[in-house]
Amino acid sequence: MYKWIFSFLLLLSLVSSEASAGVVIGGTRIIFHGDRKEATISVNNTDATSWLVQSWTESLDGGKAPFIFSPPLFRLDGQQKNVLRLLFTGGNLPEDRESLFWANIKSIPGATDDENILQIAIKNQLKLIYRPTAIKKALKPDIYEKLQWSQQQGRLQVNNPTPFYMNFHSVVVNGKAVNYPEWVAPFASKTYDIPQLAASGKVSWRVINDFGAPTATFEAAY
């Protein structure tokens, strides 16, 4: 019995060790500026062994996106670093607001002869935001507090009057956190089902900025 438990814990430690190592992505999001030809993001192999790195983009619903990674597939040797280039392939994206896509970076471990090591491919999915040149100067420090909150038929509604995607770090209503607030698109509204939502109250929120860090806390009545 004790021998079985020890073996199980040893396997868990091996899995944990392997899962925590590998390829480290140099960011949590990619901002593609409309006045530039490309965007870049670094990938760093912290292992002693090699990994394959596969990258691609897609729309929010899993369809095709007008961006490609270069190179889309390459070998990253141990303790080495590389830079992925993201290129715009063309298309009619809106020029008065941001567009949101997914950037996928998948790390595939190299082959090993050690049967005691469980190898796991790791997929990182990052937000890819296309920011047109026309709205670039509109992104100011106070832009995040322009969100408008209200109660609509017992549901909490947020309206985004800006041309930017507002990716939430947290939303708190009358002291209770909203589960999975996600984001609200430019010039759009989003509603949340809040159990026993009071007729009026206070909502506070934090947004994730371009650097992947949460902003200060903003508050408003609804």
Q: How much strand content do the residues show?
A: 35-45%
Radius of gyration: 22 Å
Q: Widest sheet: strand order?
A: 2-9-8-4-6
CATH superfamily of the largest domain: Immunoglobulins
This entry's quaternary arrangement is single chain
Q: Please report the distance between the alpha carbons of the first and last residues.
A: 59 Å
- In CATH, what is the class of the largest domain? Mainly Beta
Unreliable segments (pLDDT under 50, ≥5 consecutive)? 1-20
Q: How would you characterize the overall build of this protein?
A:
The protein is mainly beta and 222 residues long. The chain folds into 2 domains: 21-136, Immunoglobulins (Immunoglobulin-like, Sandwich), CATH 2.60.40.10; 139-221, Immunoglobulin-like, CATH 2.60.40.10. It is 9% helix and 45% strand. The protein contains 1 helix and 17 strands. It has one helix at residues 2-20; strands spanning 23-25, 29-33, 38-45, 51-58, 67-70, 73-76, 81-88, 99-109, 122-131, 148-152, 155-160, 166-173, 176-177, 183-184, 188-192, 202-207, 218-221. It has a 5-stranded mixed beta sheet with strand order 2-9-8-4-6, with no helix packed on it. Mean pLDDT is 89; it is low at 1-20.
Task: Write out key terms for the chains shown.
mainly beta, 2 domains, five-stranded mixed beta sheet, five-stranded antiparallel beta sheet, 1 helix, signal, Pili_assmbl_chaperone_C, chaperone, PapD-like_sf
